[in-house]
Amino acid sequence: MMGAAAGAVGVFFVLSGFIIRYVTLSRASSLPVYLADRASRLYSVVLPALAFTVVADVLARIFHRAEWTTTAGDYLLRLFATATYTSEVWFQDLAPAWNEPFWSLSFEAFYYVLYGAAFYLRGWRRIALLFAVALLAGPSILLLAPVWFLGTCLLDSYQELRKSRSRSLWSFATIFGCGILVVGVVRAVPHPERAAVSAWVFHFNQNFVGWGMPRVSTWYYETGILSAILLLAALLLFDTVDLPPNSRSVRLMRYVADGTFPLYLFHVPMMYLIRALVPYDPASRWQLALILVGVTVVCILLGSVCNRLKDLLRRLFHREAQAA
């Protein structure tokens, strides 16, 4: 089975769909402007993270005098596929070997376009663009699309439930009760049977690997659905909490949130570079904790830098969208 770090992508997909749905419902826009906003958000982190990945890779290899295990053509192909979000289309797996988290952005970008086409277009233009994007994406990306679109449905469900306070309380109680029931049932099942189910799921997911879709797994559905339930319960529970938009706590949460995307794409090459250049004891939990905290802080600080780049790219892309 996949680890917690990989399964967190399911949570990331749900949150992404939730946020995109919220943004498109709260802002009047058009498909070109929407795509310009999404492109500026992605590239404001992708471009510097991809550049840093190459620099970290080269420095680590030079320091360790390691031989190149890939050709220049393959290396450049992976960079190009990552920068164009085509690294996972049609049974491809071309994410940079030194920064695996990039693979999920190929999925994310296609979900942005699919949602934008469905939300902003009508009639035959909507059908034609949806069909073209789905055809370009391929089966791997489409198989995980329901996890992302679950986030969009989550926002609609929350907004519908919060119209009535009593309905929200009953919904929260129902969600919480169902969660307790599910946990109780799982705990009550004898261990050998749980192991048999786990083995079946494992072999089922292994078939995706055999079919050339190594990024597809039921684990993303499991973590995505669980996170959606917990998020909806939390939203209903704290619905009456009113924080001023400009309060210090809200500004701090936004600042940290802006750093989560850089943290996602920068942390792996940073860890590799530290391991190559910094002498430390891997067996020391204190040293590992210090490195983890340091990487997290640096990545969160990069959020403000990437935001400035995002604003620059947004102005550029908006100009192009308005001219088109």
In short:
The protein has helices spanning 4-26, 31-64, 72-83, 103-120, 123-137, 139-143, 145-161, 165-188, 191-210, 218-237, 248-258, 260-277, 285-323.
What attributes characterize this protein structure?
324 residues; mainly alpha; globular
Overview of this protein structure:
The chain has 324 residues and is mainly α. The protein has a domain of 226 residues. Helix content is 79%, strand content 0%. The protein is built from 13 helices and no strands. Helix 1 packs across helix 10 and helix 2 packs antiparallel against helix 4. The protein is globular, with a radius of gyration of 22 Å. 27% of the residues are buried.
Task: Tell me the radius of gyration.
Answer: 22 Å
Kindly estimate the percentage of residues that lie in beta strands according to DSSP.
under 5%
Helices, by number, come to: 13
Give the averaged pLDDT, no decimals: 80
Largest sheet: number of strands, sense, barrel closure: none
Overall strand count? 0
Order of helices and strands: HHHHHHHHHHHHH
Q: Distance between the terminal alpha carbons, to the nearest Å?
A: 47 Å
Structural class: mainly alpha
Low-pLDDT stretches are: 191-197
DSSP helix fraction: over 70%
User: How would you sum up the global shape?
Assistant: globular
